[in-house]
Amino acid sequence: MQYQPHRFSVAPMMDWTDRHCRVFHRGLTKRALLYTEMVTADAVIRGDRQRLLGFSPVEHPIALQLGGSNPAKLAEAASIGADLGYNEINLNIGCPSDRVQEGRFGACLMAEPELVATCVSAMRASQPVPVTVKCRIGIDDQDAEADLQRFVDVVAATGVSTFIVHARKAWLKGLSPKENRELPPLDYQRVYRLKARHPELTIVINGGIETLDEAVRHLDHVDGVMLGRAAYQNPFILADVDSRIFGENSAPASRGEALSKLIPYAERHIQNGGRLSNITKHILGIYHGQPRGRAFRRLLSERVTDPSAAVDVLKDAIALAEHGLGREDQSDAA
Questions:
Q1: Do residue 264 and residue 115 come from a single domain?
Q2: Which residues pair with 136 in a beta bridge?
Q3: Is the dihedral of CA 96, 231, 182, 156 positive or negative?
Q4: Which InterPro entries match (predicted)?
Q5: Which of 1, 53, 119, 270 could lock 247 by a disulfide, CB 3.0 to 4.6 Å apart?
Q6: How far apart are CA 68 and CA 56, in angstroms?
Q7: Domains held by the chain: number
């Protein structure tokens, strides 16, 4: 199978998909496309780039997601991202938070396709890396059929060929960001129809997808699938992505192998002044549903609170989960 980077990806999620999370996820899948948290164009231009944008070479393929609505600033931020080595620059047109709306970016820009087109044109002209757009099927009282079609038509005319579509509307008034991820009804068929009308575009579906079985079914209708919370809360789902989604014959990493890969990474992070908890907060779900899963989480949660916690804590947690070493209730599944 020819490698298609958008065939499977892990969604950009604020406070979740930071550099440590992405290194962990890369230990489970070589092929999935990974995304940063959303970073505003202003932060990229003025902020601490190493802290905001730094990443490990093992994270490739990796996309930088930007937020903003000023074409010149987005172009500058996209150029910075390309120079740093990101494989893709993505524009967020899906986030519904009040803070994002006040800054005139995110989902509210679904109502301004011409402005989005101006932004992505500037981003494409500023650097050689592909620019993509992540959006909703609509906002508020928009017609999810006609208005999404117009949005895609206007933006695609700039040369952007990949759209990641969260198959829910965003209600900008009356719903919190959390509610906007759960309450508006999913309309996968609307995304399927978008792909049918635009066979020339790469259409990736996102929203409410919880298993690889579901992902495979979606791939009968669209070009790619993006998982969000399911990939974060039950990360071992990623271990089968390379074989089931990309057709690779290699055996997936076990939970213990994936965690063991993190040990030298964690050692370097601590040596550079970081805390073990920066990393371990992302791995708590890897033994989800397993006999010693709860004990694994409890050990980490209790012992990483010490600012001086070293990698021995991680090693002990792996030994407990894999071999039951230490005091453990064998029926402690969660």
A1: no
A2: 166
A3: positive
A4: Aldolase_TIM, DUS-like_FMN-bd, DUS_fam, DusA, tRNA_hU_synthase_CS
A5: 1
A6: 25
A7: 2
- Other beta carbons within 10 angstroms of residue 35's beta carbon come to 25
Which of 244, 268, 286 lies at the terminal end of a domain, its last residue? 244
Residue range 3-13, pLDDT digits in tens: 577 999 999 99
Both tokens of residue 319? 């030994």
Give yes or no for residue 324 having a pLDDT over 80: yes
Is there a contact between 54 and 39 (Cβ–Cβ < 8 Å)? no
13 marked as part of a ligand binding site: yes
Residues 180 and 261 in one domain: no
Q: Does the residue 199 lie in any domain?
A: yes
Q: Does the annotation place 208 within a ligand binding site?
A: yes
- The answer to whether position 331 is within a domain reads no
User: Tokens 């805390």 identify what position?
Assistant: 275
In the predicted model, is pLDDT for residue 334 greater than 90?
A: no
Q: Which domain holds residue 108?
A: 5-244
Cis peptide leading into 61, omega within 30 of 0?
yes
Q: Which residues are annotated as catalytic? A: 95
Q: How far apart are the first and last CA of the chain?
A: 36
Q: For residue range 272-298, what is the model confidence (pLDDT) as tens digits? A: 999 999 999 999 999 999 999 999 999
Tell me if 329 is assigned to some domain. no
Whole-number CA gyration radius for the chain: 20
Q: Domain check: are 90 and 185 in the same one?
A: yes
Would you say 228 is a known binding-site residue?
A: yes
- Same-domain status, 121 and 40: yes
Which string of DSSP letters, residue by residue, matches 4-52? -GGGEEE---TTTSSHHHHHHHHTT-SSSEEEEEEEEHHHHHHS-HHHH
CA–CA dist 138, 117 (Å, integer):
16
Does 273 appear as a known binding residue?
no
Closest CA to 133 of 49, 65, 41, 83: 65
Q: Which two tokens stand for residue 76?
A: 């500058």
